Automatic annotation (TrEMBL):
Cu cation binds at residues 206, 256-257. Its cofactor is Cu(2+); heme b; heme. Belongs to the heme-copper respiratory oxidase family. The chain crosses the membrane at residues 12-40, 60-80, 92-115, 127-149, 161-181, 201-224, 236-253, 265-283, 304-321, 341-365, 385-410, 430-455. Pathway: Energy metabolism; oxidative phosphorylation. One of its GO terms (molecular function) is cytochrome-c oxidase activity. GO terms for cellular component: plasma membrane. GO terms for biological process: electron transport coupled proton transport; oxidative phosphorylation; respiratory electron transport chain. It comes from Vibrio ezurae NBRC 102218. It catalyses: 4 Fe(II)-[cytochrome c] + O2 + 8 H(+)(in) = 4 Fe(III)-[cytochrome c] + 2 H2O + 4 H(+)(out). It is a multi-pass membrane protein. SUPFAM superfamilies: Cytochrome c oxidase subunit I-like. Binds 1 copper ion per subunit, denoted as copper B. Binds 2 heme groups per subunit, denoted as high- and low-spin. This is cytochrome-c oxidase. The lineage of its organism: Bacteria, Pseudomonadati, Pseudomonadota, Gammaproteobacteria, Vibrionales.
Amino acid sequence: MENETTVYSTKVVKYFVVASVAWSIIGMIVGVILAAQLYWPVLNFDSEYFQFGRLRPLHTSGVIYGFVVNILMGASLYIAQRTGQCGLFNKSLAWMVFWGWQLVLLLALLSLPLGYTTSKEYAELEWPIDLLIVLVWVLYAILFFGTIAKRKVNHIFVANWFFAAFIIVIALIFVINNLALPASLTKSYSVFAGAQDAIVQWWWGHNAVGFLLTAGVIGMNYYFIPKVSERPIYSYRLSVIHFWGLVGFYTWAGTHHLIYSSVPIWVQNIGIVMSLILWLPSWGGAFNSAMTLLQNKQKLKNDYIMMFFFSAILYYCLATFEGPLLAIRWFNMMAHNTEWIIGHVHSGALGWVGMSGIATFYYFIPKLWGKDKLWSTRLIKWHFWLAHAGVAIYAIALWVAGIGEGYMWLAQNENGELIYSFVEAMNFKAPWLFLRFFGGALFVLGLFLMVFNLYKTVTKPKFVLKREAS
């Protein structure tokens, strides 16, 4: 049983969670604006600050660093305390991490629309902000590992293994990919060039997905899924195999982004082989989480938080099928650089990460604020179906657009002349781009329902919260 004298620090966790909710709304609203701009180019307003190229990195940074990193920081600090039956390593350090990270996000919000960017995918922020990120990340690592070291139990729960991996790997690859020579306060140039720059960039780019959006979220889910399902992890041994499989193979897979490029063939082949191997640990972990939920089938039938988690697992299976599929050369030839890629990314980002985050918000926020249940079960039901309709419409539209687009780019006459012009390919995918906008808008509408429901939940009268075992 838990030590009754243990005092947990939850106030800073609340701040991280609220920041995550806020950035999920901001980041995804910008995403809907971008989708609208692709169908109605007039919405760029001939403005250098509001056009697609300036807003797109704001969208990706807002979702990845705002929504995801905030919830991972908050959840990891909470879970490290609960599973270790100890308080935080240092409360002041926790607040330094929180406010330092919000400063990073504020600087991104100001600098990216102004055009201050390195032009590197998921690493657009310029060098002074990068230095601040490194400082905050080191403080976060000290705080997390210090809390783990304080634990009053010998065992380190598997969720903390995944958190540790995402903290260490992101630190390593972020620093290396962002090595640059400053030319001014707002401009720098990468120390890498050409094929070397591409290899290092996609070592970072793919593993930012692999460890921020995958390992970190898996760690969070390995704690919350057993909680919400009221059952233990289906197979703890499989969760450990899942961990080592992910850590062992994911870091090598980034060069599948560079097939048919000037990068050496053997380097491309490493990415292909590792991507295909990743099917095994990914689906093994998904099976483990799904079986954990299915151990309580009766609750799963009516509990929409469990349904959100279950849906996230299904989209995780889908996204981790699409990634290795893209690594196969014949399919890469058809799909790469088309809308299919955007569909793949968002089946993972909205379906896996988004629904995991939503389920966590619905379960975690009432617990943090000492509430026994959500204000409205009807609103969470509406949100569930809006989210599913949004992701399905979004992804299916872009799969169709991408395969059609890829075929039209490759189609040739007998003399080798291209059959379709670029404009014809654009006209083909236009209605599918509208459906992309519509699907994204449905997803964001669901988020507004969630925010309203959670606001009403935390502002209703408190009840006496029973002490729960970790």
